[in-house]
Amino acid sequence: MSGNSAVMIFLLALATCGLSSTLSVGPGKTYSRIEAAYQAAAAGDSILVYPKDAGASYDSVAVYLTKRNLAILGVAASGQRVVLHGNGYNYTGAGSVPRAMFQFNPGADSCDVENFDISGCSNDSYNGAACRINQVNDITIRNCEIHANDMGLMSNGSVVDNSAANQLIEDCIVHDNGNANDAGYNHNFYMGGTSVIIRGCNVYAATTGHDIKSRAHITIVEGCFVHDCQNREFDLVDDATNTTAPGSHALVAGCVIVKAANASGNKTVMHFGQDGGNDHVGTLFVVHCTIVTPYVSPVVDLSAPGAGVSFTNTIVTDPSGSASGQVLVNARNGALMSNAAGRYLWISHGFSAPAGGVFDHGFTGAAGVVPKFVNAASGDYGLADSSAGIVDAGLDYSSISLPPQIAGRPVEAFALPLGFFKRTFAGKPDNGAYEWKNGASAAVFNTVAIVKASSWRQTARTDLRGRLVSRVTPVACAGVASGYYIESTLAGKAGAGSALVR
Questions:
Q1: Of 485, 481, 490, 489, which Cα lies nearest the Cα of 458?
Q2: Closest by alpha carbon to 257, among 317, 313, 309?
Q3: Per-residue pLDDT tens for 339-393?
Q4: What's this model's pTM, rounded to 2 decimal places?
Q5: H helices then E strands: how many in the chain?
Q6: Distance CA 453, CA 473 (A)
């Protein structure tokens, strides 16, 4: 199914249910600018944005949203996205001028932006972003490529008033964001607020800062490929209210995390703690991840008294297997090594469990031995053989104890180069981001499930090349029991994405 057909099916379903009107933007359409369509839209409407001729960009796009439940959807040919470019516009944030191409302000809850290529967002403060979520809830950014902006995505809010809750960034490619004029202070992601989920994203090569920086109360990154940043891949730090409240946890699950071989900045993989003098009262849970780093800099750096880390069913390896003196966990600024724990890890020869931490059921590879991956050079970190200490060596997922704020989630895995799939286990789980499948690529997956959801939201999946596969009718129009969705794959097609009904 083409992207156009999928979007039209979804909109027809909404119209049949009497839920919305549709406004169209593009050559020969009612509106020539997204901003004009937004001004005419009412809450619950959908704005369809069609490509310009020859793939030309919509320039200087600046949408300051205050209306709720809007969907702004790019409608492009299969394998493409509608191109938007800042083109010198100064996203100042002054008055009603947004600090991002799409800025969601109070009143704009439950909005979606999907299927765009967004670049060129900048301002005089060097923090112009593709999307900014400003104290609003239930915002979804999906199937976008976000690159060459000062910041990729930004958000802010407070757990005190439950603002910036349920942010979802899904199936996006986010890369090469940053500004050398303010090096170190602009990132691919810079998130805050009550809770954020980053799922099925390919995040890489932040040019001056970190791949994922967050000051949110709860940060969940699942089924992502995070790699090749010049600084940290994760910088999960403090906020005066969000992280000082108890239970400010982060979950990084089902992710492949790879340090660049030529990283020029901070070579730590993951930082959990503080950089602003506030505590971070919570734990970083690293579950079913594959982490690759050649450096002696820590895999996890704890830097606040209330901060901890817990690894489970994870692979941590030096790409050569011959490094020495590598640091799994470092504790500083009042952080306690007794708050570091790990179970069922495979670590390469250069690592050792830190003194004072609680580590058990681990396996250390011999000198020069590294896990065999299908094709690490191309980013495929599926298991190429049934390595000892990895295959059938993990802890049963139902036995992994997680706090209630992040518990009960399925394990998602990344589908190269974009998307995710629900990981299934036969017997004991394998360590790392993927199950051993007799050497098959990590990109091949099939899954079928019927799952209870707290609320419906129209959803799409993409194939291996980031192309929109399908979008289907919400359950309210399909006669399916309220609150459920059906997940299935395109049978027999390696890498095809799942279509969801909610």
A1: 485
A2: 317
A3: 999 999 999 999 999 999 999 999 999 999 999 999 999 999 999 999 899 999 9
A4: 0.87
A5: 3, 42
A6: 15
SS3 253: strand
Q: What is the DSSP track for 280-348?
A: --EEEEEES-EEE--SSS-SEEE-STTEEEEEEEEEEE-SSS---S--SEEE-TT--GGGEEEEEEEE-
CA–CA separation, 142 and 154 (whole Å): 15
> Where along the chain do its domains lie?
32-446
15's enclosing H/E stretch is: helix 3-16
pLDDT in tens, 479-500: 333 332 323 332 222 232 332 2
Pick the CATH number of 32-446 from 3.10.180.10, 2.160.20.10, 3.40.50.300, 3.40.47.10: 2.160.20.10
Cα–Cα dist 330/354, whole Å? 8
Q: What is the C-alpha separation between 336 and 229, in angstroms, rounded?
A: 27
Instruction: Give a three-class secondary structure readout of 337-404.
Output: HHHEEEEEEEECCCCCCCCCCEEECCEECCCCCCCCEEEHHHCEEEECCCCCCCCCCCCCHHHCCCCC
**Given this model, what pLDDT does residue 19 score?**
59
Phi, psi of 10 (to 5 degrees): -60, -45
Give the phi and the psi of residue 380 in degrees, each rounded to 5: -95, 100
Positive or negative, the CA dihedral 111, 116, 117, 122 is negative
Length of the chain in terms of residues written: 502
User: Is the Cβ–Cβ distance between 131 and 101 less than 8 Å?
Assistant: yes
Q: Greater confidence, 462 or 31?
A: 31
How far apart are the C-alpha atoms of 344 and 430, rounded to whole Å?
10
- The CA distance from 238 to 243, in Å, is 5
Q: Where are the beta strands (DSSP E) in 139-181?
A: 140-142, 145-147, 151-156, 167-170, 173-175
Cα within 13 Å of Cα(495), Cβ side: 15
Q: What is the DSSP letter of 35?
A: H
Residues 108/116, Cβ–Cβ less than 8 Å: no
3-state class (DSSP) for residue 449: strand
